[in-house]
Amino acid sequence: MLTITTRTEIFLVVGGTDMRKSFNGLAAIVQNHLGDDPLSGRVFVFCNRKHNRIKLLFWERAGLWVCAKRLERGTFAWPTTAEKAIALTTEELTLLLGGIDLVHTRRRPWYEPRRPDPTWRKKCEENLLRSTQRS
Fold this sequence. Notes:
The chain is of the alpha+beta class. The protein has one domain. It is built from three helices and five strands; from the N terminus they run E-H-E-E-E-E-H-H. It has helices spanning about 25-35, 90-95, 120-135, and strands spanning about 10-15, 45, 55-60, 65-70, 85-90. A five-stranded mixed β-sheet has the order 4-3-2-1-5. It is globular and about 65 Å long.
């Protein structure tokens, strides 16, 4: 089952993507263009040049998901920037998919805890392994 929580990292891939690409093609873009791991559990969002189609690539336990949306009229408000990808929150993704232009919205200042270091789990496992080897 596809689950996107507030802890899920979401990356919007800037620029137009060939929407004929599916699992392997989109995963190759993530690996080669972004230098990221498509099996990381992050959600990668792609859009075509006309900005009327979107695909999401997402790894979940046993395999990759590819979800697609095609607009019959209108376009998505796709950001333009020099960066290869933009990090989004789940709320921002919901707004984008709902037709809201993120450029004309702003976040109100409030407390947000820092996201944990993505390597913390691996460090904990290594420390646990070292401590059990000493015993």
